[in-house]
Write the structure tokens for this entry.
Amino acid sequence: MMTEPKRVVADASDFRVARYAAAAIALSVAEAAIPSPLPGVKPGLANIIVLLVLMRHGWAEAAWVALLRVFAASLLLGQLLAPGFFLSLAGSVASLAVLAAATRLPSRWFGPVSLSLLAAFGHIGGQMMLARLWLVPHEGLWALWPIFSMTATIFGAANGLIVARLLSVDDKETAG
Amino acid sequence: MWRHAALWLCGMRPGDYALLLVAVLATGYAGRHFWGADHPALAVVRAGGKTVASLPLDRPGRVQVRGPLGLTHIEVEPGRARVAADPGPRQYCVKQGWLTRSGAAAICAPNEVSLLLEGRRSSYDSLSY
């Protein structure tokens, strides 16, 4: 006896996640062309998309976009299952965990810039942990921390400002 | 130009400024903690392979060590130490002058005396110039 084939129907949120993930993947791939002195020192432009999704549609969809981005971008860059992929994944997971907590912050006081900074520090934190435990099990690795911390501060703030700007355009469109 | 900056900065909320400040301070602290100069704590003097004196580097002090050629004079000031005088022919260890970093060493080979600065944690096994 044959079972009835199950039809999977994509709903609006699926299409949204796919669209945003495509944008995040494009930014990741474009960003890979920028020379970087150190793995992990990069603008993290895809996080702009993740934060945008987080603030527009909530954490669950943001998590989908972030993780799809990690897998698809490393697949496109030929990095899948290479160390860089696991670092990226660890950073993304840590960042999403931080964001899950950070969305509880009062939004009157903490805006996209705070979320972006926290996400950026989550990213480098997760990457550093994995690198320390697995790739470079040596205390000397911490000598790189100030560079990562500076990168996270600068690009975290910059990406946050971009997100704030994009969201303010949202507000104007809904108001006008 | 100013209107442009205002347009961007209006996205900043009070907590954002606070968190940005925390991030900057944390970066500065990390820089000092991981890259800062390691202050040596102890000047260890050896003669003929044996440690003959360990002088703390937080106060001035002097010590004379006898070797095969005669007396080597070690001088310590807060944070630094040097070989002030040595009977060796080439005076390399004296010409090194003040040692300030942990791991730094001055070796007066002919007289078999060495001076080594030790830190609480040493960044290098040894430093020579």
Q: What stands out?
A: The first strand of chain B starts at residue 40 and ends at 47. Helices of chain B lie at 2-9, 14-35, 92-95. The mean pLDDT of chain B is 88.
